[in-house]
Design goal:
The chain is built from eight helices and 22 strands. The chain is α+β, with helices and mostly antiparallel strands. Strands 1, 16, 19, 20, 21 and 22 form a six-stranded mixed beta sheet that branches. A four-stranded antiparallel beta sheet has the order 7-6-11-12. The chain has a three-stranded antiparallel beta sheet with strand order 5-13-14, with no helix packed on it. Strand 6 and strand 7 form a beta hairpin. The two termini are 29 Å apart.
Length: 338
């Protein structure tokens, strides 16, 4: 909403991010508890998700991360690194398994055994040499051993490769990407930072103003099932972009689309003619399907005369919600969302 008496902003942010309905809903959610961060969760499948957001926004993991990054760049939220995860260098997935490999042929078909030591006679051999049926028996002196740590102990591990028959005491390691079936070593592993997100406290006042400015109108229009962007820029015929407070898009048959551009202008003494001229200029530059100027609480006589003469669709009302209700009754009351 354009206000004739400007309020000084504490901290400038890129308000274009509010044109994304999902971003706006995320901020609204965070404003309910400004000190509670949006925390990551690593699932059983090793995906990095944000469950606090998934209940309200039907975005996939990649879309959610992209949107949070955009909001961070815009200065609306702040990202704090809390961890990092290994990821596939080919596809970027964090859904990895760790493979233990033979250092000679790099096969994962290896078996591990323990080296046991009989403490009394000093015999050291693999655990398979000590096992006889269900008993532990020293292969040297044939003593039946009962107490681990007292009569015998494990002194290390030993591996053997079933493919090349190599024996070794330590395997090499590699990651295996489950989605792309790609195996790679640690020197090729991507490290993906994991963030939690919090509202930018320096911009909190501005964030609240931006949302409160459009919240009533947006909620009422979205309640009809309309696609709403607030604020939003439309491309002009000359290539120049023009920003409107609210843009409503309605998809029709055969991929057709109607676009309605709306500005909300407020002034206690009445919205002046210059504001109407600026609105007319933007509408002429973009040629939306329809356009409305919501004047809170009214247009001055000069502005109203200009609006009538230039055939500008306008609504005067004491509040944004009342103006939006009148707009819905005039233009969208028969609309039914899918």
């Amino acid at each position: 909403m354009t206000v004739t008496s400007q309020v000084k902003q504490e901290h400038s942010i890129n308000t274009g991010v509010y044109s994304n309905p999902s971003a706006r809903k995320i901020v609204e959610l965070m404003l309910r508890s400004p000190r509670t961060p949006i925390a990551p969760e690593i699932t059983d499948t090793d995906e990095i998700r944000y469950p606090q957001l998934e209940t309200s926004e039907k975005l996939d993991v990649a879309e959610m991360k992209s949107l949070l990054a955009e909001m961070t760049t815009a200065g609306v939220i702040i990202a704090d690194r809390v961890d990092q995860a290994p990821a596939c260098p080919e596809c970027g997935s964090t859904r990895l398994s760790t493979r233990y490999l033979c250092p000679k042929c790099f096969s994962y078909d290896i078996a591990r055994s323990y080296l046991y030591e009989h403490l009394k006679c000093g015999k050291v051999a693999g655990d398979e040499a000590f096992r006889k049926l269900d008993q532990i028996v020293c292969p040297k002196c044939q003593t039946v051993l009962h107490s681990f740590g007292v009569e015998y102990r494990a002194v290390g591990a030993w591996y053997k490769c079933a493919k090349c028959n190599e024996s070794f005491n330590a395997p090499t390691h590699a990651h295996f990407c489950r989605p792309s079936h790609h195996q790679f070593t640690s020197d090729r592993t991507r490290l993906v930072p994991i963030y939690q997100y919090r509202l930018n406290s320096e911009s909190l006042g501005e964030i609240r103003r931006q949302l409160l400015t459009f919240s009533d109108a947006v909620a009422m229009l979205e309640g009809l099932g309309l696609t709403v962007f607030a604020p939003h820029s439309l491309a002009g015929n000359s290539g120049e972009a023009f920003s409107f407070d609210i843009v409503v898009q309605i998809k029709g048959r055969w991929s057709s689309q109607k676009t309605f551009a709306i500005d909300i202008i407020s002034s206690e003494g009445g919205v002046i003619a210059e504001s109407v001229r600026e609105f007319i200029s933007k509408v002429r530059g973009t040629k939306p399907t329809g356009s409305y100027l919501l004047a809170i609480p009214f247009l001055t006589d000069e502005a109203k005369s200009l609006a009538h003469g230039m055939k500008v669709a306008f609504i005067e009302a004491p509040s944004v919600s009342e103006a939006t209700a009148a707009l819905i009754d005039r233009e969208f009351k028969n609309f039914r969302g899918d």
